[in-house]
Design brief:
250 residues; alpha/beta; Rossmann fold; 2 domains; six-stranded mixed sheet; 10 strands; 36% helix; globular
Length: 250
């Protein structure tokens, strides 16, 4: 479904991603591992049009994404949960979720009768909102609360729920476990496994290699902008290099 071929991303003279190729097949969880600065986030941002592609190509279900704007990428069925969550703290939980649907329907802006009037004419909106609330009951309890007052774990739920409001077929997640207690990391990974079992395809960027490889089908390892290792989750967990460099094991 997702094919990244010889991707290059540059920031001025900094070559953040260098000739990276990877694939994500339907129904897989593929994890992208590596230290800070390896280029993982740059790769995700380039995939969804948040950073320009300097070379190579990104294709989703046979359609080129690398020249599309972000809202056009979202309409192809791809959504990103960004690093740091990037919720809007002075808006309610519900309004943050509605913005996920807003991005999905951005091409209908010309038809607006009012600032958010189109949301209430969307026949699938309430169904998507209720699905998010079923996945995250805590968000339903706090739907009228300001998003900035949520705990770190609740904010991660909100960022993930916002992306799911676009009904993606491919979900990209950038470091969802950052700042979370171990029990919340387990909950987050359990949710991703559940979404995969419901048919969602996932590309997961994660520094917690243990947690990611426990739920992933396959993985890639990046160093200084390049892929240096790849294999099944089991192969990577048993690799001596991985155990020393990323898993803290001898």
């Amino acid at each position: 479904m997702l094919e990244i071929d010889e991707l290059d991303v540059q920031y001025g003279h900094i070559h953040a991603v260098r000739g990276v190729s990877l694939t994500v097949a339907p129904g897989e969880i593929v994890t992208l591992l590596g230290a800070n600065g390896a280029g993982k986030s740059s790769l995700l941002k380039a995939t969804v049009g948040l950073e320009p592609v300097a070379g190579g190509r990104v294709s989703w279900r046979g359609q080129r994404l690398d020249h599309l704007s972000t809202h056009q990428v979202v309409r192809t069925g791809v959504a990103l949960v960004p690093e740091g969550r990037q919720i809007l703290p002075t808006m309610t939980v519900r309004d943050n979720l509605l913005l996920g649907s807003f991005q999905f329907h951005a091409h209908r802006l010309r038809d607006l009768l009012g600032p958010v009037g189109w949301l209430f004419r969307d026949p699938g909106l309430q169904e998507r909102l209720e699905r998010v609330y079923r996945l995250f009951p805590r968000l339903k309890e706090r739907q009228g609360q300001m998003a900035g007052s949520l705990s770190g774990g609740e904010q991660q739920m909100l960022a993930t729920g916002r992306a799911l409001m676009a009904s993606p077929e491919l979900l990209l997640l950038d470091e969802p476990s950052i700042g979370l207690a171990p029990n919340l990391v387990r909950d987050t990974m359990g949710l991703l496994a559940r979404l995969r079992n419901e048919g969602l395809t996932i590309l997961l960027v994660e520094q917690d290699a243990h947690a990611a490889l426990r739920i992933a089908d396959r993985g890639y390892v990046m160093e200084t902008g390049r892929i240096v290792a790849e294999g099944s989750a089991r192969e990577l967990l048993s690799s001596q290099r991985m155990r020393r460099a990323y898993l803290g094991m001898a």
